[in-house]
Write a structure and sequence with these properties.
The chain contains five helices and no strands. It is mostly helical. α2 packs across α4. The chain is globular. It has a single domain, classed as Orthogonal Bundle (Arc Repressor Mutant, subunit A).
Length: 87
């Protein structure tokens, strides 16, 4: 299943409503964290992380987790700037 890029980044920003938990989980994955590490950072169980990431993937109509992270970045749901190099 392909995501319609125009829906994600076209003239009208059409973004599914992601929860704060889904955004936090996607952000940690975007930063290179594994789901277990994300769970530790958010004080959530692995099952809670898996539910949040699966829900976000479905809402974003993504084919896999990395696709979901990419879409979330494109639509501005998660920040993709590298904070480790900011001064």
């Amino acid at each position: 299943m392909m995501t319609d890029t125009h829906m994600a980044i076209g003239d009208r920003l059409i973004s599914p409503m992601l929860t704060d938990r889904e955004i936090h989980c996607l952000t940690l994955v975007a930063e290179g964290k594994k789901p277990d590490e994300a769970g530790n950072g958010l004080a959530l169980s692995r099952a809670d992380i898996d539910v949040a990431l699966t829900s976000a993937r479905i809402k974003l109509n993504a084919s896999n987790l990395m696709h979901a992270v990419s879409i979330a970045m494109l639509i501005g749901a998660i920040d993709h700037s590298d904070k480790s190099h900011s001064e």
